[in-house]
Amino acid sequence: MNKLINTITMSAASMLMLTAASCGNGEGTPVAEGFPRPEFKAPADSIFNIEALEALGRVGAPAVSPDGKTALFAVSFEDLEANTSHTELYTLDLTAEKAEPKRLTDSEKNEAGAVWINGGKTIAFMYPDKDDKMQVWTMNADGSGRTQATEHEGGISGFLFSPDESKVVLIGNVKYARTAADIYPDLPKATGRVVDDLMYKHWDEWVTEIPHPFIGDFDGKKVSATKDIMADEPFEAPMKPFGGVESFAWSPDSKILVYVSRKKTGLEYAVSTNSDLYAYNLESGETNNLTEGMEGYDTMPAFSPDGRYLAWLSMERDGYEADKNRLFIVDCQTSEKRDLTADWDYTIDEFAWRPDGKSIYFIAAKDGVTPVFAINPADGSVSTLIQEQADFNSLAPVGNDVVLTKRHSMLRPDEIFRLDIADNKATATALTDVNGPVFEKLVMPTVEPRMVPTTDGKEMLTWIVYPPRFDRNKKYPAILYCQGGPQQAVSQFWSYRWNFALMASNGYIMIAPNRRGLPGFGTEWEEQISKDYPGQNMRDYLAAVDNMKKEPYIDTEHIGATGASYGGFSVYYLAGNHDGRFAALLAHAGIFNMEAQYLETEEMWFANWDMGGAYWEKDNAAAQRTFANSPHRFVDKWTTPIMISHGEYDYRILASQGMAAFNAAKLRGIPAEMVIYPDENHWILKPQNAVMWQRLFFRWFDKWLKPASTEAAEEA
Questions:
Q1: Does pLDDT of 265 surpass 50?
Q2: How far is the C-alpha of 697 from the C-alpha of 691, rounded, in Å?
Q3: Which three-class secondary structure state does DSSP give residue 305?
Q4: Which of 68, 402, 482, 567 is deepest in the core (most CB within 10 A)?
Q5: Is the distance from CB of 75 to CB of 62 less than 8 angstroms?
Q6: Catalytic-role residue among 11, 247, 682, 702
Q7: CB hemisphere CA count around 375 (13 angstroms)
Q8: Contacts of residue 168, Cβ cutoff 8 Å, sequence gap at least 6
């Protein structure tokens, strides 16, 4: 277990040094240069391992100063001893070649959401107050002069200044639902929750508060006169659990705030994805629904630089949370709406206006990677600016032809890149190398795209990740990766838990198919999985395994399968339907009993759409097919050792699903192991739990897929 050392590792040298910077933390304490990286000593074989994974810095999205000369970004490192992560802010000179990041903060707690204000002379950010509640703070551009700007009761989770910086919208919580004391004031210690409608739980919490937008005045130092613009409305803005400041857009004249909300509660909320964009007029106090009649998710509003147009992402169908994200614009003068991507068959993740408004840059999964595109608002023509064996994420235009972004792959985490655009093509230049000092000591796996024939005559892109120093003359165990979502891309993603580089570095060949249901291959490919969970996508998984089994370097007797969420469902289903292909299985947060899942989950639109309806709808063929193929109905065919993990704060797929699967395996006499995290949700997030999960992952698969090495280790 690594400890966060007091000395600082410089990104440009291997020596350790501590240098006083020209700025301070507001209390007269010098700020240390470099990155506070956990101590890391490369293993003797130079192979990527869990310790290396935990030593990596996690780079945040850059914000560009108004003059385009400086980037502001955050870097986080895990502190295993403290069982938390720590974040500091950095700036990068964009005018100098190979500039080194300059560290601005050296704080006890974490800064978040940092942006430029005051023409680039000031930085605004979130930081805890004396009561440990997040507030807006400001500091000079050099990191000095920290001042608390808000005293919002209960704290905030986000903020966005108006273009003229006279106003700011704060995301703060308001009370929702009644407590026991509200109902019976004479029973102040009663803890019972009285529930009379759905959505009483969401993802990992009992819903007792919901976010609202508060607009306040800003005089350059303090925020005052905050007003809840949705006072007395029992609706969320932004939408939980993932909505943030991207759910708000100020008009360039600072007179209108557009926000995203799904103005529904209870059962109506639970069965609908119909969110809308609302325009709040600061002068009149009136609110207008801009997307009334548009039935699916409407999110991420952004005004064009001249204010003539408002762009946003829009899904068409109510109840389908993985529908195609279309890029819509509305003419604010004529109210004419247009779908710019009507003739483009992919779903958009994020976008940003070019500063002159002549095009919109956007990111979308396509062909197994996530490139950067540009679309012409006049005619909807799309250009692929850059497509690599990598994923791009975040867009921060510096000028009309320069964009800052982040890029990662299966072999390297995010770093900041500059895209220089000319003639509808972009070249990428790395601006940061936060993790270079770790990777320069390591030998990494290799990644190969492979086109696999499917059982219905199509071809499927499958990523194959080979161990470091791969030798085709040797035999290797393999693991099939089953993606969650279920409609989430298997692109060149980097994950700190489902890390293919780490898995391959432990001696496994990783098989990661872009099976039916994944974005990036057109709407037909992506939507095939809906109402057909155990269908063609499962045959796609087996096709990928069978294709790899033909290779002489695959140890066909030692192939495993793993996945989380829908991937966990896949593992449970394959456990009873794999015809001896797998020697070991591992499922995290998976659906085991579809009937129970239909009633246990909270966002009912998800279950209704994906399962096809309720199990009591006997005349609903799609629903009956779904529930007839629930994994728990095939337990009589289970023969393969299985490990199960789950978090008890997971209210999307309850931990009881994992417990039921484990109990079934034990009752069947099948070797099984279960790990339950009482303080985790759908994801394993706490550093020590994450390391524990990785260790258990490899302990389990090594036992069953590397029996010779396991026996030798036990004898030693």
A1: yes
A2: 10
A3: coil
A4: 482
A5: no
A6: 682
A7: 24
A8: 136, 159, 160, 161, 162, 215, 216, 218, 223
- Dist CA 619 CA 627 (whole Å): 13
Quick one: which of 610, 653, 612, 606 has its CA closest to 271? Answer: 606
Asked about 132 being catalytic, the answer comes back as no
Residue for token pair 């050392």: 5
Which residues, in sequence order, are CB contacts of 283 under 8 Å at separation 6+? Answer: 255
Dihedral angle sign, alpha carbons of residues 379, 383, 385, 389: positive
> What is the pLDDT, as a whole number, of residue 641?
98
314, 565, 630, 645: the active-site residue: 565
Indicate the pairing of strand 122-128 with strand 112-117: antiparallel
The three state secondary structure string of 177-224 is CCCHHHHCCCCCCCCCCCCCCCCCEECCEECCEEEEEEEEEECCCCEE
- Chain mean position to CA 80: 22
* Torsion angles phi and psi, residue 317, rounded to 5: -105, 130
How much is the pLDDT for 177?
87
The answer to whether the CB of 605 falls within 8 A of the CB of 323 is no
The Cα–Cα gap between 603 and 614 comes to: 14
CA distance 149 to 167: 12
The active-site residue out of 106, 349, 650, 702 is: 650
Given a contact cutoff of 8 angstroms between Cβ atoms, the answer to whether 177 and 239 are in contact is: no
Q: What is the number of other CB atoms lying within 10 angstroms of the CB of residue 687? A: 22
Query: Is the pTM of the predicted complex or chain greater than 0.70?
Result: yes
Rounded to the nearest angstrom, the gap between the alpha carbon of residue 267 and the centroid of all alpha carbons in its chain is 27
pLDDT for position 33: 76
What is the SS3 assignment for 330? strand
Classified as helix, coil or strand, 287 is strand
The residues that bridge with 461 in the sheet, in sequence order, are: 451
Alpha-carbon dihedral 54, 57, 61, 63, rounded to 10 degrees: 160
What is the 3-state composition of the chain as percent helix, strand, coil, each rounded to the nearest 5?
20, 35, 50
**Per-residue confidence (pLDDT) for residue 93, from 0 to 100:** 97
Asked if 75 and 60 count as a contact pair (C-beta separation under 8 A), the reply is yes
Q: Where are the beta strands (DSSP E) in 82-195?
A: 84-93, 102-103, 112-117, 122-128, 134-140, 147-148, 158-161, 167-175
Residues for the chain: how many in total? 716
Note if 275 is an active site residue.
no
Confidence of residue 31 (pLDDT cuts 50, 70, 90): confident
Whether 565 is catalytic: yes
Strand partners, 391: 370, 408
**Amino acid 37: pLDDT:** 84
